[in-house]
Amino acid sequence: MNRTLEKKIEPYIWLLPSLILMAVFVVFPILIVFKLSFSEVSKSGLVGGFIGFKNFADAISLPAFKTVMLNTLYWVVSVVGLSTILGFVIAMVLNQKFRGRKIARAIVVFPWATSLVIQASVWNYIIKYEYGNLNNILLNLGIIKQAVNWRMSYQLEFIWECGVGIFVTIPFVTFCVLSGLQAIDNSLYEAAEIDGASFWNRLWHITIPLVKPSLTVSTVLNIIYVFNSFPIIYTMTKGAPSNKTDTLVTYLYMLNFYDRQKGPATALSVIGFLVLCLCAGIYMLGVMRKEDNG
What we know:
Layout (H helix, E strand, L loop, with lengths): L2 H35 L1 E3 L5 E4 L3 H7 L4 H30 L6 H13 L2 H11 L6 H9 L12 H29 L3 H9 L4 H29 L3 H6 L11 H10 L4 H32 L1
Antiparallel strand pairs: 1-2
């Protein structure tokens, strides 16, 4: 075989196992779901003929659809937005030199390293009305006179779910930003200090621009991760009452396995996939424009 041709083929040979795995476990299932979304699917899972956009029309006309989509929007925006802000602040703190910094970094990792089901179960126990730790601590400290029902409404329950989502997402953002902060040359800060730049000037003109690539990657990955998050909401409320605390992922699961409406459920999964593709596409366009401008 020609040596030049060998060099051209070699990279594809090394990539072949990964491409095969992606085709089998990613591309093929996606194609199956798309096929099911345009097909008649019985409650027992039998696939019928092509029915066009009927499954999508049925999914959109479901009574809970609007509530679920709004919940999904609130869930993603609040969890990604607040975890990004808090993670950035914590990363700034952990980037400073202080006694016990290694221990502090290890503690920050714990929520991320623990299973989401365990995290949600623990928080479920903490906010219990009858014997929850939160009420016990506040009563013992004299902050409250009697136990508070932290789950008196579905709005409060959804806020707690968002809070748990933020809590477990902060470590990921923190360490993405921290990696970016540690790559910044200290001479830039020293030069800025000599020129009389304040902390806020250094933050806006040095830190944020140089950390932006890490922050962008963490935000995009977080959107995908949080959008697809299932364990927290399912463990804490299962979408109750009446799908008021459901997001798209938990709702389509309930629709498929509990209500046996497999057609609309596959249509919802395709809608979710397209939303995530749109987010990823916007990110890729932004990156390519920056490269072209650069």
